[in-house]
Amino acid sequence: MTDTLTWVVTAFAVLLVLGWYLSFSAGQLDRLHHRVETLRAALDAQLARRAAAAVEAAPLLDPATGLLVADAAAQALAAGEARSEQELIERAAPAEEIENDLTRALYVAFGDPAEVAELRDTTPLAAQSLDLLTQACTRVQLARRFLNDAVAATVRVRRKPIVRWARLAGHAPLPAMVEIDDSVPPGLTV
Q1: Is 107 within the bounds of a domain?
Q2: Residue 33 to residue 15: CA distance in whole angstroms
Q3: Per the structure, how many domains does the chain have?
Q4: What is each CA distance from 15 to 11, 23, 34, 148, 171, in whole angstroms?
Q5: How much is the pLDDT for 163?
Q6: What domain range includes position 132?
Q7: Backbone angles phi, psi at 61, to 5 degrees
Q8: SS3 for the chain, per residue?
Q9: What local confidence, expressed as pLDDT, does residue 86 receive?
Q10: Most exposed: 1, 5, 64, 165, by fewest CB within 10 Å?
Protein backbone atom coordinates (compact mmCIF):
# COMPACT_ATOMS: atom_id res chain seq x y z
CA MET A 1 0.00 0.00 0.00
CA THR A 2 2.78 2.44 0.84
CA ASP A 3 4.63 1.56 -2.39
CA THR A 4 1.54 2.41 -4.41
CA LEU A 5 1.05 5.65 -2.50
CA THR A 6 4.72 6.56 -3.01
CA TRP A 7 4.40 5.94 -6.76
CA VAL A 8 1.24 8.00 -6.98
CA VAL A 9 2.78 10.89 -5.06
CA THR A 10 5.97 10.70 -7.13
CA ALA A 11 4.03 10.58 -10.41
CA PHE A 12 1.88 13.51 -9.27
CA ALA A 13 4.98 15.51 -8.30
CA VAL A 14 6.65 14.80 -11.66
CA LEU A 15 3.50 15.81 -13.55
CA LEU A 16 3.21 18.94 -11.44
CA VAL A 17 6.83 19.94 -12.13
CA LEU A 18 6.44 19.14 -15.85
CA GLY A 19 3.24 21.19 -16.02
CA TRP A 20 4.90 24.11 -14.27
CA TYR A 21 7.90 23.95 -16.61
CA LEU A 22 5.69 23.82 -19.71
CA SER A 23 3.64 26.75 -18.42
CA PHE A 24 6.80 28.72 -17.62
CA SER A 25 8.28 27.97 -21.08
CA ALA A 26 5.05 28.92 -22.85
CA GLY A 27 4.92 32.23 -20.97
CA GLN A 28 8.56 32.93 -21.75
CA LEU A 29 8.03 32.15 -25.42
CA ASP A 30 4.95 34.37 -25.54
CA ARG A 31 6.87 37.26 -23.98
CA LEU A 32 9.72 36.78 -26.46
CA HIS A 33 7.34 36.79 -29.45
CA HIS A 34 5.66 39.93 -28.11
CA ARG A 35 9.07 41.55 -27.65
CA VAL A 36 10.04 40.70 -31.24
CA GLU A 37 6.81 42.25 -32.56
CA THR A 38 7.32 45.37 -30.46
CA LEU A 39 10.93 45.75 -31.55
CA ARG A 40 9.99 45.18 -35.20
CA ALA A 41 7.49 48.03 -34.91
CA ALA A 42 10.19 50.18 -33.27
CA LEU A 43 12.59 49.40 -36.13
CA ASP A 44 9.93 50.35 -38.67
CA ALA A 45 9.39 53.64 -36.83
CA GLN A 46 13.13 54.36 -36.80
CA LEU A 47 13.43 53.52 -40.50
CA ALA A 48 10.59 55.96 -41.21
CA ARG A 49 12.29 58.59 -39.05
CA ARG A 50 15.56 58.11 -40.97
CA ALA A 51 13.76 58.43 -44.32
CA ALA A 52 11.96 61.58 -43.15
CA ALA A 53 15.24 63.09 -41.93
CA ALA A 54 16.84 62.25 -45.29
CA VAL A 55 14.00 64.02 -47.12
CA GLU A 56 14.55 67.05 -44.88
CA ALA A 57 18.32 67.05 -45.54
CA ALA A 58 18.01 66.53 -49.32
CA PRO A 59 17.49 70.26 -50.20
CA LEU A 60 20.83 71.06 -48.58
CA LEU A 61 22.65 69.07 -51.27
CA ASP A 62 23.36 69.83 -54.90
CA PRO A 63 20.27 69.17 -57.08
CA ALA A 64 21.34 65.79 -58.51
CA THR A 65 22.46 64.32 -55.20
CA GLY A 66 19.49 65.83 -53.40
CA LEU A 67 17.14 64.22 -55.91
CA LEU A 68 18.88 60.86 -55.43
CA VAL A 69 18.52 61.05 -51.65
CA ALA A 70 14.94 62.36 -51.77
CA ASP A 71 13.88 59.63 -54.21
CA ALA A 72 15.45 56.84 -52.12
CA ALA A 73 13.90 58.27 -48.96
CA ALA A 74 10.47 58.62 -50.58
CA GLN A 75 10.62 54.99 -51.72
CA ALA A 76 11.60 53.93 -48.20
CA LEU A 77 8.69 55.89 -46.71
CA ALA A 78 6.27 54.37 -49.23
CA ALA A 79 7.60 50.87 -48.52
CA GLY A 80 7.21 51.49 -44.79
CA GLU A 81 3.56 52.45 -45.22
CA ALA A 82 2.88 49.45 -47.44
CA ARG A 83 4.73 47.23 -44.96
CA SER A 84 2.56 48.47 -42.09
CA GLU A 85 -0.62 47.67 -43.98
CA GLN A 86 0.68 44.31 -45.18
CA GLU A 87 1.95 43.24 -41.75
CA LEU A 88 -1.58 43.36 -40.43
CA ILE A 89 -2.40 40.65 -42.94
CA GLU A 90 0.69 38.44 -43.17
CA ARG A 91 3.53 39.75 -40.97
CA ALA A 92 5.83 40.65 -43.84
CA ALA A 93 9.52 41.32 -43.35
CA PRO A 94 10.95 44.78 -43.99
CA ALA A 95 11.93 45.62 -47.56
CA GLU A 96 15.67 45.28 -47.06
CA GLU A 97 16.68 46.29 -50.57
CA ILE A 98 14.82 49.61 -50.42
CA GLU A 99 16.45 50.44 -47.09
CA ASN A 100 19.84 49.46 -48.51
CA ASP A 101 19.21 51.82 -51.45
CA LEU A 102 18.60 54.65 -48.99
CA THR A 103 21.81 53.82 -47.14
CA ARG A 104 23.76 53.83 -50.42
CA ALA A 105 22.22 57.20 -51.36
CA LEU A 106 23.20 58.60 -47.95
CA TYR A 107 26.75 57.36 -48.49
CA VAL A 108 26.90 59.12 -51.85
CA ALA A 109 25.58 62.35 -50.35
CA PHE A 110 27.32 62.35 -46.97
CA GLY A 111 30.38 60.15 -47.51
CA ASP A 112 32.95 62.96 -47.39
CA PRO A 113 33.36 64.42 -43.88
CA ALA A 114 34.94 67.64 -45.22
CA GLU A 115 32.00 68.39 -47.50
CA VAL A 116 29.51 67.63 -44.73
CA ALA A 117 31.42 69.93 -42.35
CA GLU A 118 31.15 72.75 -44.90
CA LEU A 119 27.47 71.99 -45.35
CA ARG A 120 26.94 71.97 -41.59
CA ASP A 121 28.51 75.44 -41.31
CA THR A 122 26.25 77.07 -43.89
CA THR A 123 23.22 77.71 -41.64
CA PRO A 124 22.01 76.64 -38.21
CA LEU A 125 19.07 74.87 -39.88
CA ALA A 126 21.48 72.82 -42.00
CA ALA A 127 23.39 71.77 -38.90
CA GLN A 128 20.15 70.86 -37.14
CA SER A 129 18.92 68.86 -40.14
CA LEU A 130 22.20 66.95 -40.37
CA ASP A 131 22.17 66.29 -36.63
CA LEU A 132 18.65 64.84 -36.93
CA LEU A 133 19.78 62.62 -39.80
CA THR A 134 22.78 61.44 -37.79
CA GLN A 135 20.60 60.61 -34.80
CA ALA A 136 18.10 58.80 -37.01
CA CYS A 137 20.82 56.69 -38.63
CA THR A 138 22.24 55.78 -35.22
CA ARG A 139 18.80 54.87 -33.88
CA VAL A 140 18.20 52.57 -36.85
CA GLN A 141 21.41 50.73 -35.98
CA LEU A 142 20.34 50.33 -32.36
CA ALA A 143 16.78 49.28 -33.21
CA ARG A 144 18.01 46.63 -35.65
CA ARG A 145 20.55 45.33 -33.15
CA PHE A 146 17.90 45.06 -30.40
CA LEU A 147 15.49 43.33 -32.79
CA ASN A 148 18.06 40.81 -33.96
CA ASP A 149 19.04 40.05 -30.35
CA ALA A 150 15.38 39.38 -29.51
CA VAL A 151 14.96 37.22 -32.60
CA ALA A 152 18.04 35.19 -31.63
CA ALA A 153 16.70 34.67 -28.11
CA THR A 154 13.30 33.60 -29.45
CA VAL A 155 14.83 31.16 -31.93
CA ARG A 156 17.06 29.75 -29.18
CA VAL A 157 14.04 29.05 -26.97
CA ARG A 158 11.99 27.64 -29.86
CA ARG A 159 14.78 25.15 -30.68
CA LYS A 160 14.64 23.54 -27.25
CA PRO A 161 13.40 19.96 -27.58
CA ILE A 162 10.66 20.34 -24.96
CA VAL A 163 9.29 23.45 -26.70
CA ARG A 164 9.19 21.63 -30.05
CA TRP A 165 7.77 18.45 -28.53
CA ALA A 166 4.97 20.26 -26.70
CA ARG A 167 4.40 22.60 -29.68
CA LEU A 168 4.47 25.59 -27.37
CA ALA A 169 4.99 28.01 -30.28
CA GLY A 170 1.69 26.95 -31.83
CA HIS A 171 1.33 28.34 -35.34
CA ALA A 172 3.40 31.47 -34.74
CA PRO A 173 5.90 31.97 -37.57
CA LEU A 174 9.58 31.70 -36.74
CA PRO A 175 10.88 35.28 -36.50
CA ALA A 176 13.61 36.26 -38.95
CA MET A 177 16.65 38.47 -38.54
CA VAL A 178 16.61 41.82 -40.31
CA GLU A 179 19.72 42.15 -42.42
CA ILE A 180 20.06 45.65 -43.81
CA ASP A 181 23.00 47.95 -44.29
CA ASP A 182 22.40 50.44 -41.52
CA SER A 183 25.86 51.93 -41.31
CA VAL A 184 26.18 55.67 -40.79
CA PRO A 185 27.96 57.54 -43.59
CA PRO A 186 31.41 58.83 -42.55
CA GLY A 187 30.36 62.45 -42.97
CA LEU A 188 27.57 62.07 -40.45
CA THR A 189 29.56 60.36 -37.72
CA VAL A 190 30.38 62.72 -34.92
Answers
A1: yes
A2: 27
A3: 1
A4: 6, 12, 28, 35, 25
A5: 87
A6: 33-165
A7: -90, 170
A8: CHHHHHHHHHHHHHHHHHHHHHHHHHHHHHHHHHHHHHHHHHHHHHHHHHHHHHHHHHHHCCHHHHHHHHHHHHHHHHHHHHHHHHHHHHCCCCCHHHHHHHHHHHHHHHCCHHHHHHHHCCCHHHHHHHHHHHHHHHHHHHHHHHHHHHHHHHHHHHCCHHHHHCCCCCCCCCCCCCCCCCCCCCCCCC
A9: 54
A10: 1
What is the Cα–Cα distance from 149 to 11, expressed in whole angstroms?
Answer: 39
> CA–CA separation, 189 vs 131, rounded Å?
10
Domain-embedded: residue 74: yes
The whole-number mean pLDDT for each consecutive block of 10 residues of the chain, a chain of 190 residues, reads 86 92 91 95 95 95 94 91 56 72 95 91 91 96 97 94 87 91 88
pLDDT score of 1: 66
Residue 123 located in a structural domain: yes
